[in-house]
Amino acid sequence: MSSVRRFIMATASNSLSLKHGLSLWCPHSTSFSVHHQQPSSVAFRGFRRSYVSASTDFANDNREFVIVGGGNAAGYAARTFVEHGMADGRLCIVSKEAFAPYERPALTKGYLFPLDKKPARLPGFHTCVGSGGERQTPEWYKDKGIETFYQDPVMGIDIKNQTLRTNSGKLLKYGALLIATGCTASRFPDKIGGGLPGVHYIRDVADADSLISSLEKAKKVVVVGGGYIGMEVAAAAVGWKLDTTIIFPENHLLQRLFTPSLAKKYEEFYQENGVKFLKGASIKNLEAGANGRVTSVRLADGSSIEADTVVIGIGAKPAVGPFEQVGLNSTVGGIQVDGLFRTKVPGIFAVGDVAAFPLKLYDRVARVEHVDHARRSAQHCVKALLTAQTQTYDYLPYFYSRVFEYEGSPRKIWWQFFGDNVGETVEIGNFDPKIATFWIDSGKLKGVLLESGSPEEFELLPKLARFQPSVDKSKLQNASSVEEALDIARASLQQVGAAV
Question: Which residue numbers delimit the Monodehydroascorbate reductase 3-like C-terminal domain (predicted)?
Answer without folding.
Answer: 396-475
